[in-house]
Amino acid sequence: MNETDGLRFRRLNRPQIITDESQEPQHKGSSTYSGKVFRVTFLTLGSLLLFPLLGVILLLESPIHPDVVSLNEPPLMSDCFEPNFKLRQAERLFEDQLLGPESIANVGDVIYTGTADGKIVKIEGKHVHVVARLGKPPCGSRENEPTCGRPLGIRVGPNGTLFVADAYLGLFEVNPVTGEVDNLVSTRQVVGGRRLSFVNDLDVTQDGRKVYFTDSSSRWQRRDYLYLIMEATADGRVLEYDTMTREVSVLMDGLRFANGIELCPDEESVMVAETTMARIRRVHVSGLNKGGMDTFVDNLPGFPDNIRRSSSGGYWVAMSAVRPNPGFSMVDFLSQKPWIKKLIFKVFSQDILMKFVPRYSLVLELWENGSCKRSFHDPHGMVAAYVSEAHEHNGHLYLGSFRSPYLCKLDLSQV
Ligand SMILES: [Ca+2]
Which regions span the lipid bilayer (predicted)? Predict the structure, then answer.
C-alpha cells in the first residue's frame, strides 16, 4: 500500500461518531434561519412594492364607467339549445383571402361582403374581386381602423346597388358594377345632438325609400367593443335614413349595444339585437305603433350579433359569444359588480381580456314568434369561429365572421 492508498483507506475506515448534533439538524437550523431572513426580506420588499402598486391601481382612472345591469340566469343548454357539432360540417371558403367578412349579401349566386381591411368584395365562383374601398389605406391595425374604414352590415337594394354600414365612416351606397361610392350618411354628421360613433348594421325597405340602421354607441367605437359590452353603456340607437330627403332621424335610443337589424315582413317594425342584454327588441318604425318598442326574445344563450331572415319565415341569429349554462360567462358574472370591471380594465388590455372569451360558436334559428327552432354549434370554434352572421341562400347558410380570415358555407340539407 503506497502513501496515497493508505490515506484513502484511513479516511474510509475512520470511526463514525453519531451524536445528537449530527450534520442534518445543523444544516436545517441554518436553513431555518436564512429562510426566515429570506422570507422577512421578501415580504418586506413585497409589501413595499405591493402597497404603492395597489395605490397606483386605485388612483388610476378606469377607462369604463360600468352600469349595473340585471341579466337572468342563462337558459340551460338543453332541448333546442342542446350542444351539437353541426357548425363543424361547414366548409371554409377563401381562407386567408378574406379578413373578418362580418356580413354577407347576394345577387343571384354572386356574393358580396365587407372586410376588415376596408374593402367591399365580390365573390363569383372561385374568384374574389375588390369592388370598392370606403376609406383610405393604410389598413390592418387598430390605429388606422377609423381612416381605413370597417364595413360591417351589407344589403342589396331594389336597384341592385349595395347599401353598406361602415363602423367609422357611416352609410354608403355602392354600385357593384362601376365601384362608384356614395357616402349617404357621414359620421361627422350630428344626429339628435350626438355623433355617430359605431355604425353597425342596416336594412333597406323593398321600395328602397328607407334605410334603417343601428349606431351601437355614441361613446365607443368598434375597436373598443369590449369596453362597450363591459360598461353596458345605454346609448345605442336605431336610426332612419330617408333616401328621398337624405334626412336622418332617431327612432329609438337607450339600447345597450344596438347591433344586428332586420326588417319584419310588414316593414312596420325592425328586429334589433341588443347585444349586452342578450335579447332582441322589436322597434316599431312606421304605422300606429311608430316610436314604440317591445321585446321579441329575451335571455338568449349568447350575445346576439346580426339577424337575418330564414327561408322558413323565422330568423337566423349569430351569437358573438355564448353564455354557457352549465358553464361560466364573464359578462353575466360581472354584470352587477361594476367595481371589479373597473379594476380589471385598469390592469388588463382588451386584447388580453379577449383571450378569456370562449371560442364557442352558436347560430340559432328562431321561429316567427321568437321561440327557438334549432341551433347549430361548434364548441371551441374548430371550423367556424367568431360567427357574426348567418345568411341563407339557395339551401346553404353562409357564415360571416367579425375576425376570422374566411367565410363558411353550411349545406342545410346535411344538418
Ligand atoms: Ca354586427
Answer: 37-60
